[in-house]
Design goal:
Oligomer: single chain
Structural class: mainly beta
Radius of gyration: 13 Å
Order of helices and strands: EEEEEEEEEEE
Shape: globular
Largest sheet: 7 strands, mixed
Distance between the termini: 40 Å
Strand content: over 45%
Length: 122
């Protein structure tokens, strides 16, 4: 079993930045593709960004392209989400996930963190 713990969420003004971190433990971190998802109040969980095992390829939802950057450091068992130019519509609980398969599919991910709240004020 893989344990995932997110951190770095909080309250930020529109146009500001946050950096989320996800620390993994339990099994070999480099064995998994990693993704970030978010869930706004009343909505379904949606894909935000994904990264393959070697960090050579990344994938982003259209809504965050050019603003968010996913990265990973396998030596530190950590994946990051740098969020710039934040908008009120980015407000959601953000979840880190580990798995395999198609990056944007929730069904590809077998392990999930507890989530961290990101709130963007206007």
């Amino acid at each position: 079993q893989v344990q995932l713990v997110e951190s770095g969420g909080g309250l930020v003004q529109a146009g500001g930045s946050l950096r989320l971190s996800c620390a993994a433990s339990g099994r070999t971190f480099s064995s998994y593709v990693m993704g970030w998802f978010r869930q706004a109040a009343g909505n379904e969980r949606e894909f935000v960004a994904g990264i393959n095992r070697s960090a050579g390829m990344t994938y982003y939802a259209d809504s965050v392209k050019g603003r968010f950057t996913i990265s990973r450091d396998n030596a530190k068992n950590t994946v990051y989400l740098q969020m710039n130019s934040l908008k009120p519509e980015d407000t959601a609980v953000y979840y880190c996930a580990a798995g395999s398969g198609i990056y944007s599919y929730t069904s590809s991910y077998h392990y999930w963190g507890q989530g961290t709240q990101v709130t963007v004020s206007s």
